[in-house]
Write a structure and sequence with these properties.
By secondary structure, the chain is α+β, with helices and mostly antiparallel strands. It is built from seven helices and 13 strands. The protein is 34% helix and 31% strand. An eight-stranded antiparallel β-sheet has the order 6-7-8-9-13-12-11-10. It has a three-stranded antiparallel β-sheet with strand order 1-2-3, covered by helices on one side. Strand 8 and strand 9 form a beta hairpin. It is globular, with a radius of gyration of 22 Å.
Length: 239
Amino acid sequence: MKGFVFAFCFLFLMTVSFPPAAQNALSASVEEDDNSVTGTVSGKSGSASVTISGPTKGDIATREKNGGVNPATGRSTASVEPPPSSFGNVSIGMDIESVKKALLADRRFGYRGERDVSLLAGENNKLIETDAARYSPYPYLDRCWFQFVDDKLYVMSINLNQEKLDHYSVFSSLCEKYGAPTTLNPEKAEWVSDSMIVDLERPLCLKYTDKAVFDRIQAESGVEETVAEQNREQFLQGI
């Protein structure tokens, strides 16, 4: 797993090191066999690759047979965790009053109370915006947004302090905990489970999204677009 994660990190850094105009001409791949993982980035001017040796499939089978413990080292080989639904004590799906209490209890966010709460367009859609860089004594967070739909926390975006943290360190930590991302491109890395979508967006923002609510909103948006397109066709036909 570490070899696979390292190869993904390599590909990601190699890809984003090219200027935006050249990124569309690049291709990347990760190949795994019994003994190693190889990552390759190819472009018009050539290619670069890295190969990481790892345990054989026989080793992995032996570890699984021993209850998730490597018999050679005695260390756990438990599988990676699913993408999280919480940051600190704030969890996706919490009602707005519970989120307010959690933010007040956690000084990292710099939450100032009702002055940080606003109403968005749409019924029961609210937003909490905090500025940790100005109002928190802790150095690792910047502006954060907590968006609610039907009084439930649906999206939270946690901007990290780029003077204290860097993209590669955060990306590597996420890969170690949650495995290789489901989606990887120069704009973001994305981990998806049945219930959650977790993004690491550039320049340095962690975004947690309720997948069920996201899918519902996307479906409703698609219906609205279809109706609008049908109305357009009816208008054109009536000219």
